[in-house]
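Table 4 source record.
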Amino acid sequence: AYHSSGYQTDFSIQSSARASGVNYTFRTYSVNASGSAVWNYATNRIFQDPTAWYHFVVISDTDNGVATERFKLYVNGVRETSFGTATAPGSGVTPVWGGSTSTTHYIGSRANTTNTRFDGYMAEMIYADGYAYGPEYFGKFDDSDNWIPIDYDSTTGDYGTNGFKIDGSDA
């Protein structure tokens, strides 16, 4: 089984200009070592403002006894609950992201495809292996109720065994 506190990924994105007639949802999925889907989620929510930055926190805790709590997505500090596609991870399943350093990890695209690449900007991606931290570890609401980032390194700074931080400063 995967580590009981799961894993967490935190990142911010800004999309590029929108193509006419295209709906931009957020999609995340993971597979296991044999390539079978561990989870697959796509929001009903459309992210249509190309000038806005969005902050995402993806949490997987496959050892959670409640199936609906094994995957969580937060957008700008608020839990997303409306999905057009929602395949929950099974109990104790190990996603490739959560247990393998020898497998290629894709950020901003699907594996082995060229037509599903993210077109926009990403800033500071944190992968905390073995942890299931909520959005409060990465951001907070200011006095005007806007979601703003906080320094993860000063909050906990622990990335786990296979975790990492991409700060985006040299992109």
